Amino acid sequence: MNNRATLALVTLLFALFARAQNEAPKPSLFDTVRPDLTLLVRKHSMGADLVEVTATSAAYKPDELKAQCTRLGEILGTPPRGLRIYAKEVQKDDPRMVFVSASFAVDGLVRVSDGKVALEAIAQAFGPSSAVSGLTLILSDIRPGPATARKFASSAWSFEARYSSFPAGLEYRVLLSSDEAKDLVLPGSPEPTLQKAASGGRSPVDGVAFWSLLALIGASIGALVYFFALRHTQRAGPF
Questions:
Q1: Res 142 pLDDT > 60
Q2: Which of 16, 31, 35, 41: CA 20 to 30 A from 100?
């Protein structure tokens, strides 16, 4: 084989190698993104979304978490009801294992009829913060539908979803790369603006929110167990 043929063969091999590298599947966000906040959402039987947010860092500021939860309600147009900020002690007598948490009820976070999730509202409420670059969102007993966003990536933010049939639920891993709320949108969506909260009649859940939230808080440890079960179950995967 002459030198020209050898050079051509080497060039071809390098080209094939580069192409194979480019076509290699990108790693999942579930493997690469460490969540700074975990959000657990459950749909109340009367329609409200019951939310529990837990920071993964013991140094997370309670005032910042309170402001973010309030911001979420403002974006959705329903101020958070029963908002409570508290310390969650995972391991007794260990200050490194005490994490700030929040629980509250809002409307409009999840639409069961078609599986639509207000991902932009969540990103815009919790994303513009130097303390948050990754989020885990767990939607208990929610099944995907025609309006369920599966995967998205831009220079500002990315997310990926997977579904578990048992226990039933959707899980999102979100990567936030921008501190500007105006960048945290999906294609075709208007720029984020605060909706005006409806005045007048109270939501049907208001009368039972206190007891519902107590039940939600009491299930905190169970929620963490659920998170790991959902993450590692063999039935979990893309849909």
A1: yes
A2: 31
